[in-house]
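User: Okay, second chain of the day. Same drill as before: sequence in, structure tokens out.
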Amino acid sequence: MERWSMEQLYRENGKIVYHFLLSLCHDRFLAEDLTQETFLKAYQALERFDGSCKLSTWLCQIAKHLYFQYLSKHSREIVTEPDETAPADNPQPEEAVLYRLELMDMLKEMQKLPDQMREVIYLRVATDLSFRDIGEILGRTENWARVNFYRGKETLIKAARAAKWEDEHE
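Assistant: Same drill. Structure tokens below.
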């Protein structure tokens, strides 16, 4: 069994774990804290990693358990605040406002999706994980992850079309 240094472990998997946690908690400070705690726990338990899944999948499983522990300790709903990102290429102020409104509408629609479907979409988009990895992280199959992503995407597209139609016919 290969022995990794903490630095190597973090360098190769840090972004994946951070984005996974951010997709769960929507709080970059909490995601950063939990990412560091994940790597500490993983490094302490590295001898128990059996290689039956990818290392990044194993780390995301640890991260998910730490996040759920955090939620149970704090027993409160975490408020979701989208990042203050705007489109690139220095858009005009009107374009930036429209982009932000569209983003807010899309995030609101995503909140209406079932939890696991929303989680699959976040994992796919935010971390670019494969459907196989997403299935492993969520304790499901690759096909289940694909189907949930597709259905969620279709639901969001229909909602966007309906909103556009309403705007055009007001």
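The helical segments are 6-25, 28-44, 55-74, 93-112, 115-127, 131-137, 142-168.

User: Thanks, on to the next one.
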